[in-house]
Amino acid sequence: MSVNVKPLADRVLVEPAAAEEKTVGGIIIPDTAKEKPKKGKIIAVGNGKADEPMTVKVGDEVLYGQYSGTEIKIEGNDYLIMRESDIFAIVG
Amino acid sequence: MSVNVKPLADRVLVEPAAAEEKTVGGIIIPDTAKEKPKKGKIIAVGNGKADEPMTVKVGDEVLYGQYSGTEIKIEGNDYLIMRESDIFAIVG
Amino acid sequence: MSVNVKPLADRVLVEPAAAEEKTVGGIIIPDTAKEKPKKGKIIAVGNGKADEPMTVKVGDEVLYGQYSGTEIKIEGNDYLIMRESDIFAIVG
Amino acid sequence: MSVNVKPLADRVLVEPAAAEEKTVGGIIIPDTAKEKPKKGKIIAVGNGKADEPMTVKVGDEVLYGQYSGTEIKIEGNDYLIMRESDIFAIVG
Amino acid sequence: MSVNVKPLADRVLVEPAAAEEKTVGGIIIPDTAKEKPKKGKIIAVGNGKADEPMTVKVGDEVLYGQYSGTEIKIEGNDYLIMRESDIFAIVG
Amino acid sequence: MSVNVKPLADRVLVEPAAAEEKTVGGIIIPDTAKEKPKKGKIIAVGNGKADEPMTVKVGDEVLYGQYSGTEIKIEGNDYLIMRESDIFAIVG
Amino acid sequence: MSVNVKPLADRVLVEPAAAEEKTVGGIIIPDTAKEKPKKGKIIAVGNGKADEPMTVKVGDEVLYGQYSGTEIKIEGNDYLIMRESDIFAIVG
């Protein structure tokens, strides 16, 4: 899907994976982790900062920190806006 | 509308969206969000800093942090002055 | 008026607007603002820092933070010395 | 082994050495150390940051700080994602 | 007067104005100021830092922060050593 | 001796001098010092950071801060891994 | 005198002036100073940092902060190792 939100600078819009979906791509988040990374899909990306082009692109499945981002709701769905530096890795 | 205020450096003047207007452009701000982003329209922009030109422009609808900016009242209307880095995304 | 004070670096000398003068240029500072910006006129400006030339100039009407600057009294009048980064916008 | 995780920027994916394996390569971690460094193997590396190419490579045995990284589980195995700056040295 | 002290880097040696001398050059320091700036004369200046040449010169009358500098006594007189960034403005 | 440990970036591997060896090279560490510097020998050095080549080299006797570094044990001997900036001086 | 200690980077080795020697070069340190600067002689200097060559040289009499540096004893004498930025001025 696409949404009419353009993140600024080094920010990205992420659609969090559903909570019950714990094994997509073979990645399981342990319940006992100190900080539980979460999974999601990149929906929109900013243009990056002057000296730091963006690495992730729309459609990437990513792992990000449990407390990262700001929640927004678009057409009934929940999303997160966060900085690319909050993203640990691309999976899949 | 236009106002006679020229923000300095990387600051922008924002006209907050009315509180009851929660669904313009399909964006709904959830009441339960950790930090509720707010919506508004860019009224005036600064010239940016030496190495960082501005991204937003007059007329853009934007999402910004709940606690961002300083309130001022111009000809009876409420506005906020904030830095561009306080803005999460352009919508619409 | 002119005074014999030359601010250093990115500092400016500001003559605060009288407290009762709340509507010059159509700008009213709301009493209920979280941080009340104040208005004043630029009396003298420094030469800026190496990589940051000054934006404001003598005579500009400006908005600045409520707690910005250091008070000095020159020939019976009260002034403030502050950094240009303490100034939010030029008005008028 | 290889996994389908691509760390971002200066991050690496590390497979921690088993707790009982204390003497591989002649390195023993003292129980009384102020901060106990831990050993592991590099499984995947990011592309580095703009001005800092990565030093470690896949397969390197490394020492890293006891509290470094974020745990994730991939196909039943435990891994850590951390920044290269959390790694003290390459051993072996 | 001259003294045999060469400040390092961006430091200056300041001779504070006598406490009773409150009106030289028309500048009066208000007793009620949040932070009272003080006046003094530049006696010696450092060579500046690599990318920041010095602005003040020997003989300049300056305003500086109330808590700036370190006291030293040279041939019976009190002086202050401070950084140029502690100086607000040149007066006179 | 040599060990199979390659410190990363600006880190070095140091073999601390034995506690009873207090007078090697004429250097005595006073018991009453606010922070007692310690002596040791450089065993391995990193490649430095992008803009800061390393100054110390293998074999140098150095003084370093009392609380610097992380302890590791290699083939029965105690070592410290620290950053070059934790080293005060080369002696001998 | 000379000692076999080579300070690293921007560090210097200082021989503190004897406590009773309060008037050398006409400088008297006031007992009532907020922070009492101390006097000493430069015995050895580092090579500076990449973009900051050293200003002081061996033999310079300097003023430095009361709490600056780390004490070491070399052949029965007390010295201090500190950063050049801890030195206020060269005297004499």
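The beta strands of chain C are 5-7, 11-16, 27-28, 38-45, 61-64, 70-74, 77-83, 87-91.
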